[in-house]
Structure formats: C-alpha cells, structure tokens
Write a structure and sequence with these properties.
192 residues, alpha+beta, Nucleotidyltransferase, domain 5, 3-stranded antiparallel beta sheet, two-stranded parallel sheet, 7 helices
C-alpha cells in the first residue's frame, strides 16, 4: 500500500529533522536542552493544559497557570489531587491563552524544546495554540531523541537523586521541567 503525505507534512518533517540533527543526519545532543512540561486537567481527549513550565538556560525558568477558555470544561479530580491546582485557582490566577502562547513563542522562537511526555504534551500545546488562534514558532521533540543508551540506563536513579538534591515538589510544571533538565545534564556527564 502506498502512503501519500501532504507537502506541508513533508516540509515540517524535514525542518524538524534538520533542527534535531547536525545537518548531516547525526543527532544533535545539546549539553543543556530546553525542556517543557505541562500539567493538565486530566488525561483524556477532552483534557487541556492548565500549567506550562520551561527550563531554559542554566538558572532560568518560566512557569504560568493557564486560564481555561469557555469550552475547556473537563476536570479530573484525580489529576487535581496529583498537581494540586484547583480549577478556581486557574480562573483567578491563570493567564489568558493568548498571553501564554505569545510568551512561549517569545521564549522559544525557532528552537527545539524537549519533553519527556511528548505524546501528551504535544496535543496540549496544540490545544493551547488553537484556543489562542496563534501559530506556534517552536518545535517540541521527544526527550528520547537526544538521550543515549547510557543515559537511559541511569535515568530513573539519577532523577530520584536530582529530586532529593533540589528538594522540589513534583507535578508542578517548572519544577518537573527543571528536574528533567538537571537529570539530562547529570546523565550526560556520566556517559561522557
């Protein structure tokens, strides 16, 4: 069976490949990758992003709550028990989707940002930008694209050590992004 892809999809895939390789097909492995993490209203098809966090250059992070738009009405109390962000808190302290999308574009323009949960974070970012009516100016890639086998072998143990060393509460977006970034940096040093 022959699969036909649109020209737009092919162009996107080529651009994405060129961003994460050295231009010659060898994987580019940043020493300090930008990391994105998202907390959400739940885990189903009707879920939406409620908090986005970034770990950027060393010592620089960004985090914001996202005010739900009218049609974002799904709420999973089990998810709330994990991230401890109430819907009421989002309504009072969350930023409008247009402001969040514009700020992410400013911080990440033309960059590749990595996620350890690419399969769920990407749809939530797509939902955010669709609600904002703004085009995304950055690429999200799976963290696994830049991890070596040696890093993967020591990842869980190193992450647990990072959590203890940093003393951060998990399941808040910027904390999780920082934990992921620091785990990457440490595992890279171990595998070099």
């Amino acid at each position: 069976m022959l699969t036909v892809f649109s020209a737009d999809l092919v162009e996107f895939l080529i651009q994405h490949w060129n961003r994460i390789t050295n231009g010659d097909g060898r994987m580019f492995r940043p020493r300090h990758p930008y990391i994105i993490d998202i907390e959400a209203s739940g885990l189903g098809a009707r879920s939406y992003p409620i908090e986005v966090g970034l770990a950027l250059e060393p010592g620089r992070r960004y985090c914001t709550l996202i005010r739900p738009v009218d049609h974002w009405d799904h709420w999973d109390e089990q998810a709330e028990s994990i991230h401890r962000i109430s819907r009421q808190n989002l309504l009072t302290a969350g930023q409008p989707v247009t402001e969040v999308a514009a700020r992410l574009n400013d911080l990440l323009r033309n960059r590749v940002v990595f996620s350890d949960a690419w399969g769920v974070d990407t749809p939530w970012i797509i939902e955010l930008y669709a609600a904002a009516g703004i085009d995304k100016t950055f690429t999200i890639s799976s963290l696994e694209m830049i991890l070596s086998e040696q890093q993967m072998e020591v990842w869980a143990k190193t992450r647990d050590s990072v959590v203890l060393d940093l003393g951060l509460r998990r399941h808040r977006a910027s904390n999780d992004a920082w934990i992921i970034q620091e785990t990457f940096v440490r595992t890279l040093a171990m595998s070099s």
